[in-house]
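> Could you send the Addiction module toxin, HicA family prediction when you get a chance?

Sure thing. Input:
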Amino acid sequence: MKLPIVSSEDVVRVLKRVGFSYAPKRGKGSHLAFYKKDQDRKRLVIIPKRKAIPKGTLLAILEQAGLTREQFLELLRR
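Output:
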């Protein structure tokens, strides 16, 4: 399934829906950081503040967040 062009705001909205919280001390400069505690591990996701996040960067963010493309697209549509 093809990924659309999304902004950092879109990614943040999806991450908040799945339980990620803002980590103000982790993000620096033009990047935002979000974290989530899973069963036995903590997930940290760094997101660049951009209007259009490159596809490779988006795929890396999804992997760090533990989301599949399908899950991300479904959450994006809501």
